[in-house]
Design brief:
The complex is a heterodimer of chains A (562) and B (291). Chain A is mainly alpha-helical and 562 residues long. Chain A has 20 helices and no strands. The longest helix of chain A has 37 residues. Chain B has a 6-stranded mixed β-sheet with strand order 6-7-8-3-9-10, with helices on both faces. Chain B has a 4-stranded antiparallel β-sheet with strand order 2-1-4-5, with helices on one face. The chains are: A mainly alpha (562), B alpha/beta (291). The structure holds adenosine-5'-triphosphate (ATP) and magnesium ion.
């Protein structure tokens, strides 16, 4: 055994205590270090090669005029990189502010795309408006009731809650198999037929505006150094979203998109920069970074377009993202499958997250540890781990048997796909949530119980806030896995190709991986097999990488706060 | 559920009457020790009657009987593993959180057995607060740490004032009044422990249990905590576990010495325990010959 202790054998008296024997173990250590480094790099390298490969297929950069590349390099890449490097030398905090702002623009675009797809394109701003107003009425009524009867028990609370939910959101719908008629329309159905329905963009602005304003006001309110009163923040955000819509409408742009972008990009960045200005005003210069990047991009595009340099003949372009499938490769698009995937992710998140976190809370905080019940709980915990390893095709069977045959939801709809894949990722959500909850030190719980908190109060106020970043990270990674699943979709009868995006979660749909699969399998032309498929893969990967980036950002933020 | 805040004036008269009724034996015999002359002269607020605690089948506490006087500092000393923390956790039923733990005997708080079926441990813990060995502030702001108790009890009237009062009571206000919004974890160890004390007194309990509150602190921080404990005893009943004999002698009115096997060897006025213990083993332990 080679150790680094100084007990040198008697016959090697010349040998100094600071060198010698231990170098053998050091070499082993170095060898081990480099082996692990290689293993890490190998994985990353393979993924990078794959990414470059499909990206080249999807974008076909070599079809562009070399001058086009030069222009982009000179006007976009060089200034951006230079600004980045110089800012880092001069004022590192400013560079952080700059890159955060840029990241918020990208992230905001991502969220905006999701909101436009779900609210504007799928359900329509007016329906969203009606439901929002009706939920707000319900919430206000519930809150008012709570104020009036502060000491009501949990059963009464639940009853009131359910009653209000039926009144405002679900109504009592007709159940077709039983032949019952619709007994009660929810409030939003009446709003929809009201004579004073607002314009679409106004409907968006008066719902998203206050929502974003409330979140912003909360952020500002929690920072005591910012003195702007919360009412001003709320008012500014609402007024701003109305103004954004009005300006876009008068200019003939898409006013709904303008409202959404204002809410998802302008508001967060405004709040962030307000904080920066209060805490470290000199860091505001960092804004030159996003300015140079965006300015460079615009300049490069304008230059190449006006001078007529040929740009790459990419498969992945705006047309690909926004058009439906076609038999000619040039016209084929992924839009319906993209919408299908987005809606499905919403269903998955809405079903797997609460159930998974609830299960994890029960298992970690409430479940008995001893006695035969404790044994049962231990068995369940072990088997959740096993469930995480069950092949996805088996979950597809489960979805077919349970959700379609037994419960009777219609074949191939978004909700069935969402529930099935939700079941698939449920074990992963449970396990990561359990881990996050277990990582909360016991001393925190003891402190809380010691002050006379109930178990629920401790869970709600101490355990969950500390575990939430971990839970969210795990869930987002699980959702990343969910978005790429294909096998269960085949079993639950998702369409191979649809020509119209799903109109809601009860419509038939196709998802991106399914569509990509179909391009490879059903279309022998090389253009489909390489170009269109590659464009689809890159779209899928960008969505996935975006989600992973969100997970990483949440984790980093959490680590900074500790 | 809410409890009536104790009237300090009332308890003062109480203790005066008690003095007349039951003068403590031997209290006038000694001159050493803080408050030796009136130690043990108030009514007991906590009474243990043959309390034994088992972890699974191992006995950690063996038939302990003692009366803890109101508005006094009671210290518990003894070798490691003798059951001091176990006894402390019995008082506010924190042992309920340990599945393996089982308590026998009676533990009366204001005359009511806290292990009766109709006692809600949550309500009990609102009146008997606890400070732990290692400082354990929540990863929230200083303000939110102190406001936690009032908030969970649904009583947020004059919250700012109560937070200020609790922080002053824990001798921390002057050091943190300009940074109430910074994280409680950014404080030094000693400050964190005082923050935990502030958090415990913010809900205005009757009794504060402290399990080696100064064992992780340097001498300066320790002496601050000791001064604080002396002040706290004017309003609260303090029960403190410590490994530091000098500390026990300095700050407590009554001392309980536990010896191995969970036995309470001796319980008396601090001065008596340190000057003239009856039990030979206790004397050996205190003078450092054993333990
Ligand atoms: N959660 C537990 N589960 C099982 N046994 C326990 C548990 N807590 C304590 N014990 C046992 O009970 C006995 C008394 O422990 P306790 O923590 O009360 O001692 P202590 O006097 O506080 O010691 P120290 O001075 O080291 O803190 C010990 O033998 C210990 O092993
Ligand atoms: Mg202990």
């Amino acid at each position: 055994m080679a150790t680094e202790t100084p007990d040198v054998p008697a016959d090697s008296e010349e040998q100094a205590w600071w060198g010698g024997e231990s170098s053998v173990s050091r070499i082993r250590g170095v060898a081990f270090e480099y082996t692990t480094l290689f293993a890490t790099l190998f994985g990353i390298l393979m993924v990078a090669i794959l990414l470059i490969y499909v990206s080249v297929d999807a974008i076909e950069p070599f079809t562009a005029d070399p001058v086009w590349h030069l222009t982009f390099f000179g006007l976009f890449v060089v200034p951006s990189v230079t600004t980045w490097v110089v800012l880092g030398r001069v004022n590192p905090t400013a560079r952080t502010v700059g890159s955060n702002t840029f990241g918020m623009i990208l992230g905001g675009l991502f969220v905006a795309a999701g909101l436009v797809i779900v609210i504007v394109k799928t359900y329509g701003s007016i329906a969203w408006f009606a439901v929002s107003i009706s939920v707000a009425i319900g919430a206000a009524a519930f809150y008012g009731y709570l104020q009036k009867r502060p000491r009501m028990n949990i059963i009464e609370q639940a009853a009131v809650f359910v009653a209000l939910a039926i009144l405002t959101v679900t109504g009592i719908p007709a159940i077709e198999p039983l032949g019952t008629p619709e007994l009660l329309s929810p409030i939003w159905a009446f709003i929809l037929v009201a004579p004073f329905i607002p314009l679409e963009w106004t409907a968006l602005a008066v719902t998203l505006g206050p929502l974003a304003g409330a979140i912003a006001a909360r952020r500002v309110g929690s920072d005591r150094e910012i003195e702007t009163p919360w009412t001003v923040v709320l008012g500014a955000v609402v007024a701003g979203s109305l103004a954004a819509g009005a300006i876009a409408a008068t200019l003939g742009w898409n006013a709904e998109a303008a409202v959404v972008i204002f809410v998802t990009i302008a508001v967060p960045i405004g709040i962030y920069l307000d904080g920066v200005r209060t805490h470290d005003p000199s860091a505001i210069v960092g804004l030159v970074f996003p300015a140079v990047v965006i300015g460079g991009l615009v300049a490069a595009i304008v230059t190449t377009e006006t001078l007529g340099f040929a740009r790459p003949d990419a498969w992945l372009d705006w047309g690909f993202l926004t058009s439906v499938h076609s038999r000619t490769a040039e016209d084929a698009g992924i839009y319906p499958a993209l919408v299908g995937s987005v809606l499905m992710i919403l269903v998955i998140a809405a079903s797997a997250f609460p159930v998974g976190v609830g299960a994890a809370i029960y298992l970690e905080e409430y479940a008995p540890n001893s006695g035969w019940l404790g044994q049962l709980v231990r068995l369940i915990k072990i088997n959740i781990g096993n469930l995480a390893g069950v092949p996805s095709v088996v979950y597809g069977m489960l979805g077919l048997a349970l959700i379609i045959r037994f419960i009777g939801l219609p074949l191939g709809t978004v909700i069935v796909g969402g529930f099935t894949i939700g079941l698939l990722i449920l074990p992963i959500v449970i396990i990561s949530a359990q881990e996050a909850i277990r990582a909360v030190p016991d001393s925190m719980r003891q402190a809380s119980y010691g002050m006379g908190a109930t178990r629920w109060q401790t869970t709600r106020n101490v355990v969950l806030p500390q575990a939430m970043p971990g839970i969210l990270t795990g869930t987002i990674l699980a959702l990343g896995r969910a978005i790429g699943e294909t096998a269960p979709l085949i079993l639950i009868g998702a369409a191979t190709t649809i020509y119209r995006p799903p109109g809601g979660i009860f419509s038939k749909f196709s998802a991106m991986p399914k569509q990509i699969h179909s391009w490879v399998v059903n279309y022998p032309q090389a253009d489909f097999r390489y170009g269109v498929m590659a464009a689809g893969v890159v779209t899928l990967l960008v969505v996935l990488l975006g989600m992973n980036a969100a997970a990483i950002i949440i984790r980093n933020k959490y680590q900074r706060n500790q | 559920m809410a409890h009536e805040p104790m009237e300090p004036s009332e308890s003062d008269t109480d203790s005066a009457t008690e003095t007349l009724i039951s003068p403590s034996p031997g209290s006038e015999a000694l001159d050493a020790g803080r408050l030796a002359t009136d130690a043990g002269t108030t009514e007991p607020v906590i009474q243990a009657r043959d309390v034994s605690v088992y972890y699974n089948d191992d006995r950690a506490l063996n038939s302990v009987t003692m009366d803890i006087p109101k508005n006094r500092v009671t210290a518990m000393v003894g070798p490691s593993g003798c059951g001091k923390s176990t006894f402390l956790r019995c008082i506010n039923r924190m042992n309920d959180l340990i599945d393996a733990a089982r308590v026998e005997g009676e533990l009366l708080f204001e005359g009511k057995n806290v292990y009766d079926d109709d006692v809600d441990p949550v309500v009990l813990r609102r009146r008997i607060g606890m400070v732990f060995q290692a400082p354990n502030p929540f990863p929230k702001s200083i303000y939110d740490n102190v406001a936690y108790g009032p908030k969970i009890q649904g009583d947020t009237r004059n919250l700012d004032e109560r937070v200020e009062r609790a922080l002053k009571g824990a001798a921390l206000w002057d050091e943190v009044k300009d940074q109430l919004d910074s994280s409680g974890l950014d404080l030094s160890g000693g400050q964190q422990q005082r923050l935990c004390i502030a958090r415990a007194i913010a809900v205005d309990p009757d009794v504060i249990l402290m399990d080696e509150p100064a064992s992780a602190l340097d001498p300066v921080a320790t002496s601050k905590i000791e001064d604080l404990i002396a002040d706290l005893a004017e309003e609260y009943t303090v029960v403190i576990v410590t490994h530091n004999m000098q500390q026990a002698a300095r700050i407590s009115d009554k001392t309980a010495v536990f010896l191995t096997g969970g036995n309470l060897a001796e319980f008396d006025d601090t001065a008596k325990i340190f000057e003239n213990p009856e039990n030979q083993e206790v004397e050996d332990y205190i003078t450092g010959k054993f333990g």
